[in-house]
Write a structure and sequence with these properties.
Length: about 575
Amino acid sequence: MEFAAFAARCEEIEAASADTEITSLVADLLGAAKEELQTVVRFLLGRVYPAYDSTTLDIGPKLCYNALARAAGQNVSVEDIEAHLAEEGDIGTVAEQLDLGGQQGLAAFGSGTETELTVTHIETTLQDLAETTGDGSQETKVDILFGLFNRASDREARYLSRLVLSEMRIGVGEGAIRDATARAFDVPVDAVERALQVSNDYGLVAETARTDGVSGLEDIQLEVGRPVQAMLAQTGTVTDALDSWGTVGVEWKYDGARVQVHTDGTGVSLYSRNMEDVTDALPEVVEFVSNRVNEPAIIDGEVVAIDADGTPRPFQAVLRRFRRKHDIEMVRENVEVQLHAFDCLYAAGESLLDVPLRDRHARLATVVGRDTPSAAENPAETPEGVSRLWLSADAKEIEQLEQEAVSAGHEGLMLKDPESAYTPGNRGQRWLKRKPDVETLDCVVTGAEWGEGRRANVLGTFELSVRDGENYCSIGKVATGITDEELAELSDLLEPHIQQESGTAVDIAPAVVFEVGYEEIQESPTYGSGYALRFPRFLGVRSDKSPADADTRARVESLVSDEH
């Protein structure tokens, strides 16, 4: 498929307003695709790799602007592109108006030999770019991007630039791909949904639906080494849980980071909530699983930082381990971590997704504890590394368990339906987390300001936004609760995502999530969300979350309703 045809259909999709129309246009595009179907699906979602693959292009905005400026000619600079972006607010619109192409030279990469860009060629080129590392890699990446932009038409440049920066935003979400796949290849939506849950590969599911229909979708199963999205919880109360289920599965809620453990019985791989491979960062977890699990398994759990006496440490201590790429052993000595496994998705060749929670936990105890009794039968005999699970229909008993959890240094409780299946990626009513006394929001950083005086070289005030559909709307700024050391770390983390600067103010591409505490939420015309956080305080970076996992404007509205 020519990329021009793909871009033309993207333009139609972007102009559509109704969900049904978007689904129809996407279905037509999928139906027209041939061998590049999987790539088309990923491109529509703004991805070059499947969702479970943590490989990134490692292209910051500045690098992309550099390639665009070169393709636009000698009269266009990176600063010009940043100024234009400040006016338009969309890199695709800026790229479309640059009148790219025609720049000759050694870095043109095929200019004059191929006149048409294809979807497959762009995928291959971007994957080559992702694999470019080492000395001089940034210059090489610019050269590769320049070669693509130099051959792109205005419309192609619009969507290519968005794809490169993972900012496609044409109104196509994962739900639209699911529905369009079902429509294009005449298979039930439920069959597509189930296949997506166990594979987390939208391209593979579309290809399978086209070639093998329902039977092929049913054959897609969990695979060790291919992470799936974590099942999520909603805020709830003990009364909610007891009224809904009668008997409640109760677990301690840990102040740690989610981890999905994959083992084939010998080797071990670990994945974060974002499905990023964090195996190298957590060697003691790898050692523990290697010593305790001797069969293929996929395990869900939480990694908690602990002191020498086993006392839990704050969440930020865990994130130091997750972010660490080098000197792992040195950091390991300073921040020890411990696995608390609480679910088993797969064991010995058998998917357990549809098995009730109480039975999955029993299997987990067997897999990790090697024939230790299940926690449901005797929580006191839960094996090391496995979170205890109590079954209770008594509110007072559950309250006592919460007090014990808090006394032990943990956050509180998780309340789960003992009969619940494991539904990857879903935030349903079958798992509840106890609402904390102090609310927090996970906000996306969309702007910042350089400091003054001794802080002139670091970012000091950060604009916070929440999700609103595919966009982000501001809800306040935070500058308190941050040490000088943290400001330096945050500046290093955010600087690659700076889109443009005006004086001391900078715009930042959505990439980093802050956890922010606050006193209350007030209505406010000052910010795009219509609300403002009163006395916001920085609590930490949620590096285990992507902007897509951040809180939404709808949640803010529900919190305001609860307050009143």
